[in-house]
Amino acid sequence: MQITRAADYAVRVMIHLAGLPPDTRASRADLAKAAECPEQFLSKVLQSLTHAGLVVSHRGNTGGFELSSAHRDASVLEIVEAVEGPVKLNLCLTGPHVCERQNWCPAHAVWAEAQAAMNGVLKKATITAMAEEAALVRTTLETAKWN
Amino acid sequence: MQITRAADYAVRVMIHLAGLPPDTRASRADLAKAAECPEQFLSKVLQSLTHAGLVVSHRGNTGGFELSSAHRDASVLEIVEAVEGPVKLNLCLTGPHVCERQNWCPAHAVWAEAQAAMNGVLKKATITAMAEEAALVRTTLETAKWN
DNA sequence: ACATAATCAGATGAAAGGCTCGGAATATAT
DNA sequence: ATATATTCCGAGCCTTTCATCTGATTATGT
Question: What is the mean pLDDT of residues A126-132?
Answer without folding.
Answer: 96
